[in-house]
């Protein structure tokens, strides 16, 4: 069970918290839009409630600090509205070992699915606990000088537990070839995997690292934020040279979530590291949530080097693959809970309705287990439907393009798209232009400078001004609010 010390009596315990958490997620998704929600909150889990504080966890420090600085108040307000016992929210980074089962998922032990190994992940003993923020900072520099890489990988994320289907066959084949490649120049260098949230990138990346390590290769697996913290900490500790040497003296660098690389000097260092490794014929494997050309924060030269090997997209999991992943997860749970019975029809139902990603499939199995354990009654399609309701999305998130926003807004306000990009400053053009910029910010993952470029080469401060202005205007003017909401819906359909 999640730890609920004060809420048990008043709020009805874990089921209540779990329901509230489902509603919090749904409201955040509705309020912030699918893109923002899945970028920042897709991996947020509620681990419990104690002394009025809801404990929320994310897999990386970067996500933690971003959510804390941009969304903490909003999350708190929504949580308070949905659960009377919540008066505070606290964010944590899930550690490889200390990770708790998510809220609806802990009727009994243990996690049913490979928890994402959020921890530093390489060259670091598995006792790593990223929740110990301040102390782990200091430990970052020496971590990379330690050679116990294998210990830090999640032992469950291997090729043997990775299920291959149409959507990931190419990525799997390339990963497999690279991991088993012995001797000679690397085959595809770098291998760049990209996919939306929860489609198996980390699993495949860790599988490569496991396999190559097992073959005696010196491998480092890092998340981008781990790279950043490691580098910054080594600079502080004046061990930057050792850090660089350590990174460059390996056979394979596996680096996850590169879309999070931030900061000029860090990017430069990343670029140098990539170049040095590629030039020395060492294998690099990179994963991100977008193709290299969309890594706007990265220097053009680094982007083109990343794109210079094999770039493979992992597509959404099809129903057949989802069903096989579910069956495997259920079998893993049954090894520990032999009484946990899931009829074929329930597996088929869940595989059909949870069309999003592997993480939601894990969540569904956890909820089924919670339901079965708490009620003691057999699972049916009806009870499964209630148990996984909060995970079901009516449709897949759609990627909205700035161009589509411009076309729709221009059409709606009787101006041309060229007007929106022009220098014209008449009210008839300025308002739709600002609305289009605002929608570009809230519906796409584009940065302010990129949006500025797409609107006739404007400065990012102009975009920021437009975003703030429309944000305020929709708050003050219900008619405009409705108008903007309608445009959002039309774009997302
Ligand atoms: N083909 C697969 N076979 C088995 N498990 C899978 C597969 N694809 C995804 N999963 C499982 O789904 C969950 C999410 O996958 P993973 O963490 O690798 O996603 P990701 O693409 O790295 O997501 P993110 O963008 O959030 O980092 C994990 O538990 C993973 O084991």
From TrEMBL:
It comes from the Bacteria. ATP binds at residues 198, 200-202. InterPro entries: AAA+_ATPase, Chromosome_initiator_DnaA, Chromosome_initiator_DnaA-like, Chromosome_initiator_DnaA_CS, DnaA_C, DnaA_dom, DnaA_N_dom, DnaA_N_sf. Residues 401-470 form the Chromosomal replication initiator DnaA C-terminal domain. It is found in: Cytoplasm. GO terms for molecular function: ATP binding; DNA replication origin binding; lipid binding. SUPFAM superfamilies: P-loop containing nucleoside triphosphate hydrolases, TrpR-like. Its main location: cytoplasm. Plays an essential role in the initiation and regulation of chromosomal replication. ATP-DnaA binds to the origin of replication (oriC) to initiate formation of the DNA replication initiation complex once per cell cycle. Binds the DnaA box (a 9 base pair repeat at the origin) and separates the double-stranded (ds)DNA. Forms a right-handed helical filament on oriC DNA; dsDNA binds to the exterior of the filament while single-stranded (ss)DNA is stabiized in the filament's interior. NCBIfam families: DnaA (TIGR00362). Domain I is involved in oligomerization and binding regulators, domain II is flexibile and of varying length in different bacteria, domain III forms the AAA+ region, while domain IV binds dsDNA. This is Chromosomal replication initiator protein DnaA. It comes from Chelatococcus daeguensis. The lineage of its organism: Bacteria, Pseudomonadati, Pseudomonadota, Alphaproteobacteria, Hyphomicrobiales. The gene is dnaA.
